[in-house]
Amino acid sequence: xxxxxxxxxxxxxxxxxxxxxxGTISRLSKMGFxxxxxxxxxxxxxxxxxxxxxxxxxxxxxxxxxxISPEFLDLxxxxxxxxRKLVSLVDKLIKKYQPxxxxxxxxxxxxQDHQILTKSVMSASRDIDNLxxxxxxxxxxxxEISFKPQLYVDITTDIDTKKNALTCFKSQFVRCGQYWLDxxxxxxxxxxxxxxxxxxxxxxxxxxxxx
Amino acid sequence: xxxxxxxxxxxxxxxxxxxxxxGTISRLSKMGFxxxxxxxxxxxxxxxxxxxxxxxxxxxxxxxxxxISPEFLDLxxxxxxxxRKLVSLVDKLIKKYQPxxxxxxxxxxxxQDHQILTKSVMSASRDIDNLxxxxxxxxxxxxEISFKPQLYVDITTDIDTKKNALTCFKSQFVRCGQYWLDxxxxxxxxxxxxxxxxxxxxxxxxxxxxx
Amino acid sequence: xxxxxxxxxxxxxxxxxxxxxxGTISRLSKMGFxxxxxxxxxxxxxxxxxxxxxxxxxxxxxxxxxxISPEFLDLxxxxxxxxRKLVSLVDKLIKKYQPxxxxxxxxxxxxQDHQILTKSVMSASRDIDNLxxxxxxxxxxxxEISFKPQLYVDITTDIDTKKNALTCFKSQFVRCGQYWLDxxxxxxxxxxxxxxxxxxxxxxxxxxxxx
Amino acid sequence: xxxxxxxxxxxxxxxxxxxxxxGTISRLSKMGFxxxxxxxxxxxxxxxxxxxxxxxxxxxxxxxxxxISPEFLDLxxxxxxxxRKLVSLVDKLIKKYQPxxxxxxxxxxxxQDHQILTKSVMSASRDIDNLxxxxxxxxxxxxEISFKPQLYVDITTDIDTKKNALTCFKSQFVRCGQYWLDxxxxxxxxxxxxxxxxxxxxxxxxxxxxx
Amino acid sequence: xxxxxxxxxxxxxxxxxxxxxxGTISRLSKMGFxxxxxxxxxxxxxxxxxxxxxxxxxxxxxxxxxxISPEFLDLxxxxxxxxRKLVSLVDKLIKKYQPxxxxxxxxxxxxQDHQILTKSVMSASRDIDNLxxxxxxxxxxxxEISFKPQLYVDITTDIDTKKNALTCFKSQFVRCGQYWLDxxxxxxxxxxxxxxxxxxxxxxxxxxxxx
Amino acid sequence: xxxxxxxxxxxxxxxxxxxxxxGTISRLSKMGFxxxxxxxxxxxxxxxxxxxxxxxxxxxxxxxxxxISPEFLDLxxxxxxxxRKLVSLVDKLIKKYQPxxxxxxxxxxxxQDHQILTKSVMSASRDIDNLxxxxxxxxxxxxEISFKPQLYVDITTDIDTKKNALTCFKSQFVRCGQYWLDxxxxxxxxxxxxxxxxxxxxxxxxxxxxx
Lengths: 211, 211, 211, 211, 211, 211
Hints:
The structure is a homohexamer.
Chain A: E1 6-11, H1 16-30, E2 34-39, H2 51-65, E3 71-72, H3 84-97, E4 101-105, H4 112-124, E5 131-134, E6 151-154, H5 159-166, H6 170-176, H7 178-194, E7 200-209
Parallel strand pairs in A: 1-2, 1-4, 2-3, 4-5
Antiparallel strand pairs in A: 5-7, 6-7
């Protein structure tokens, strides 16, 4: 596959990307990579929010992160099944963008959409050089497997951008409150400390090609 | 083994306990458990600090956490080998205190002392009902295995005590600076969020008996 | 989530609960917990048995164990797919009962219904404090992963109740014979020995909150 | 289950069997086992190839390996879902042939069809004595888990037969070229070296009964 | 390595072999294999028992199992360290007997002697075709890893021999009582049920060569 | 730690580096990295070979690979123990060279020296940005864990250099013969195919920092 400078970033829901790798998206964008967010579904978390609100939150956040607006697949719950149909859809995106790297959610999070999306991205990424899973943070989303931090990205110069992007998601603030933001920033401090810097984001690696 | 209300907490070095489970020690002490810290070695991290300084930092921290002063084994590096001798030493402590729970460091941290101590504690804890490993935070201490958070303790009411205890370790502040504290508190926010509270500490479980 | 004293126990089929944790259900019921069995499907194992027979076996067994009658979801095979629909169904049960603990089958058993049910229970249990998987026993049901016993419940005073509950499943006796019962009691002896008692049941822990 | 001398070998696609265990099929056939290849789907990889071409490639290859012609299930992509329907289909094959051993693809390959087929074979193999997964080789098909070689079969006397069988798949040669064959033979050299022979094939074991 | 019909069975302590694979030793002996037990250490569990008593218990048990008397290495605790010296010692035994199979204790048991012996046996078995780990049963001997049953041996016709061999270890009966025997037989029922028989022993496989 | 352009490569024995990552050493050297091989021990495999012969084989191979001559630690077997002493020795090398990357042997190989060296390198690499384990190939060196290929280096232009370097180890040729070389090259074909190239080497990642 011909290499491009684009990077595909998959998230089942709006704000998944910002939580997991908002700092890295900002950093990659500054470095000149074309980061393309792909959002699989547009759920309504509270009775009052609508798909359009969630979509425009995501668009606003992308501007802050410095990347293009997300591609919204707007899949219905019945379309979120691990089979050839969903894999083909991801296949087409990968053929279209020929990314140099693909990021997706950690396979071990308990949310069914996260697992199914990631399994599909893995299946479709057989010709991709670099495939990473970002760390998910939902309350209580534990399963029988555990996250293995392997790739660290220093986001010390991007932490404010990450915070600003997260504050776009007003519907999440209503649901989760301030301690949602504290937890995400807190985790960045922790991951930063592991590589002797102030803030970092961590990823589990499926494969990477180097040198 | 007759049950007592004592809890043994093993750390290879001074401050390992506070970093990993200072909040939980505070909480257990308030609940009436007799928490007994056991410190295996007394290293000199900088040229200027002495064993005595590190010992008194630990004693001061224990007072803040509300537990008794640590038992210092003061093992030399050549004594830190996984064999019957070290296991027997831990054995004696367990026979002496007959603890209802034992906490030790996560086996997957890269530090040789942490691994060797924990292997010895596991060997000696065959008759113990509850055996947990706390989350270690040293910069870069990664190995081929990953931490699996399973037991969560809500330390929201104990976070200030934990911070105060950590500030006793002046020699660490010199070495690591403020971002050391931020990383530890940050991780507590992250672990707290996973159980819908502000601050928590997480543990991997070897075994527990309930009901 | 407000805590109640109810405990949800999920099984794909009638008798899965009794095999895996009949002793623990009895014990929890005696302790005052409201144990609520949820049975996902009602298969016909032999040509002669009917859904009604299997249902009444389960009701009879519940009486012996001291818990309320199971809630039968009566899902058809085509409904046993890991997707949002099945997760939503479990979600509703969890919202309805607000359990203090949830038990489900071990994820590593080879039966498709066991795996799919447990994946759905994990997804729906993001706000649950205590989530455990009980040990499954079907002949030959091995996969690429292995059961990790972590939580032990002493059922020495409940082993006869467990045996009596198991004998309610006459259709299983026809299929499996006496050595079915011997295997289940035998495993309890083995698990008991590991914690210095006569009989125990073992569970793998997804998460638990303590202190 | 009554033992026969038949061996069932499952592959999602034509040539999966030859890549993973062509040498072992040849060897087992020579030893007198009745090896029965089961091919789940018949994909068209290039625009020009047809299902009939792929089917006849497989039939030709079987002749070279010395086993009977494959049973083609010809499942459509929408039928490749891990549920009772697919498991029942495999169940029937197992009841029909009562095999002494079952081989299927490694569960950790990224291809959705490989994973779904193997999960179904595991579910259906609860009464089977010997269940093995062969090593898959597709470019880039990596996931979060890793292959564990445990069973080795010496195929030094069968390597030429394996090569000849692989050359039947003309459509694959067009797609992958000579280095496809080199990779497969190369892996056999590597696996052979691990058991002190020239060529071998390796398998991960789910279960086996011996003595 | 030239194949012989001998089978080496390693145990750190007297009675480890009988607990883990007494039935299989009996079965292999009946089948004509020369089973050679190797006992690494001779501990004194109670104040009154002596090394000689423990040695003669082992010899008596071997007679019942139908194999030759164990080779007692009589290593002191300080010799039980994972290094070249211990590996060389095992190396010599393997060169001497050239066994067709080697059995050792499960690596995941918490006992330091079990782990160290097994690591040494693995290192020394690089030229061995078949290497298995038997299931250990000590009370509470849990670690961070879990046993993976893969090889099953049907010991229905050997269960009484196994029980008789176990009763030779009078010092263990004093320490552990009748429920020790019940646990071991109970586990055999459970393992038997998994392969549709009355009694079985289970092993984790490091490697095996077949066909 | 200040970054340099040096790369430390640890091997327990002469030729371990060449087998595992000879192509990558050649490639890194061409790219301008200063690759520094560290050889821990100098064993005598056959009665006739001497330490000096093995040392000069290594020196000759380094010339072919384009890197500097190895630093020979010449540790005796009794010094190969995982403790502070060995870790301190590795510590000093890391402080001396301040490498941008460290490569060591895969932790899961059965050889005691490989395991002990790698554990020590992990302990000493807490401040290192990039830590990788190369794939080991000794006959039969299997343990309970499995290699996870994650980092791939394309060595198509370096395969001949790798082969030439390997032929320096005349003592190994005497021991292992031609099929030793075929196995190593064969594995490179297999790893190459996984990333759509002719030859590659694969590594398991402990940690890496990027962007």
